[in-house]
Amino acid sequence: MSLVGVGADAPATPDARQKAGTKRRPPSITLLNTASIVFGIALWWGLSLAGFKLPTPPEVVKSAVRLLSDGTLEGDILASLRRVLTGFVLGTALAIPVGFLMGWYTIARALIEPWVQFFRTIPPLAIIPLAIVLLGIEETPKIFVIFLAAFLACVISTFQGVVNVDKTLINAARVLGAKDGRIFLKVVIPASTPFILVGMRVGLGSAWATLVAAELIAAQEGLGYRMQAAQLYYDLPTIFVGLITIGVLGLLMDRLLLFAERRLTGWQERR
Amino acid sequence: MTSSPKIQVMDVSKTFKLGGEDFVALDHVSIDIADREFVTVVGPSGCGKTTLMNILAGLEEPSSGRALVDGKPVEGPGPERGVIFQQYALFPWLSVRKNVEFGLETAGVGRRERHEVAEKYIAMVGLEQFADALPKMLSGGMRQRCAIARAYAVNPSILLMDEPFGALDALTRVRLQEQLLETWSQDRRTVVFITHDVDEAVFLANRVVVMAARPGRIFTTIDVPAVTRDEAFRMSDQYAHLRNQVWSAVHHQS
């Protein structure tokens, strides 16, 4: 998910080799993006017509229309969004203060870091069996797993942000009379905001990545659940609808965070 | 120098652990700096000149010996000592104006007065047109001018400058040197100016302190007569002579 975001917002490099004086302008990025998407869909269509076991685009659209008209897709989107957002918000809300604690106080870092590093090596999905046993099969284990994924991704980034705050800036604040509290509020927090936002984007990616598997836990609705149910009936168009919906929603949320990032960290010198 | 010195460095040593070995950054350094004096400190890298400045700024503590300012031991940073760093150290998320106001805000100065003081020092360094610009919009010279305004805004009686013009091109450097001297000749704050540039050291100073490395210590001090610092001085035989004197002190240490 985050890969999509990173790739798509890479700066457009003007063709340096293009000779000055030639009137030919490089084709616009939007045009190329559109062409690429159209080509991808055409390729998919071609493959499905050529006998691969793929639904054709019209079949997928038809399936989407059916799922939308009877309210299934809306219900699934709501259920999944609620899980992803709850897990993500709780995860990042805890990760940011914990990351600050770890970065600012050596004692907190020494106490917390082993646990963070340990749980980071365990894929959140591997926690699912444990979560089911301990937390049952209601919403709690699903949200917990997503929460854990978002938390672990965001806490490391926040911690790195605090640790990487330029020592000279802290010294500059100190010689201007600032004490610890003010240095923290006025220097450490703004200086680590870019890292936190990157952490949130990665955390959001992890949250989405964990969703489908989390919905393996006895879900009644949700995009992941719908795709698993469709799998039983070889209902490929519905699976495609689920995949595309997850992709589009993830992309939209990533764009929102990217927008926030641009607004909040526009002071950065981009190289 | 009839009154007691503004700054007294008394037998200060500073030792770092470097890869398990002791590195002597400063070895029994003593120096007195008078009120309203402009002292430049020049020396090869590793001579401890930045360490000396950090001790005066209160950012580091001496391993032994004492540093006094106005007769009182230095304990942490204080508003009477303004510091200007080589890397400008502007807060990149704050505009020029907000950067200049930072120290005033810290001191609890009210909004209106803060604004007035900031205006004054922004004008002093000629950044009026860029008061609301972010540091990323500024050139290196403009950034350092902003940092100078920020240090002046809290009205320190001492300016500690750590190679402030080291990262600037030669032309900008000369212009900022002249502006600094002009300001200094008006308000006569005590200045300790660290540099690795012999020309700069001679041009600016009342007194040049030459340091030596391994261990970091004061090698010699050379007085510069009180003459007008202008292009004529830069071209004079007197300047050339002083420059040669400092140069050989820096480069022929044993």
What would you say this structure looks like, in words?
The complex is a heterodimer of chains A (271) and B (254). Chain A is mainly α and 271 residues long. Chain A has one domain (59-264): MetI-like (MetI-like fold). Helix content of chain A is 76%, strand content 0%. Chain A has eleven helices and no strands. The radius of gyration of chain A is 23 Å and the shape is flat. The model of chain A is unreliable at 1-21 (pLDDT under 50). Chain B has 254 residues and is α/β, with parallel strands linked by helices. Chain B folds into two domains: 7-80 and 158-251, P-loop containing nucleotide triphosphate hydrolases (Rossmann fold, 3-Layer(aba) Sandwich); 91-155, no CATH class. Chain B has helices spanning 49-57, 96-106, 111-124, 140-153, 170-187, 198-204, 231-235, 237-251, and strands spanning 7-18, 21-33, 38-42, 64-69, 72-73, 81-84, 158-162, 190-195, 207-212, 217-223. Chain B has a six-stranded mixed beta sheet with strand order 6-7-8-3-9-10, sandwiched between helices. Chain B has a four-stranded antiparallel beta sheet with strand order 2-1-4-5, with helices on one face. In chain B, helix 2 packs across helix 3 (111-124) and helix 6 (198-204) crosses helix 8. The longest helix of chain B has 18 residues, at 170-187. In chain B, 44% of the residues are buried. The model of chain B has no long low-confidence stretch (mean pLDDT 92). The A-B interface holds A 166, 168-169, 171-178, 182, 186-187, 190-191, 193, 265-269 and B 57-59, 76-79, 81-83, 85, 87, 89-94, 102-103, 106-107, 134-136, 150, 154.
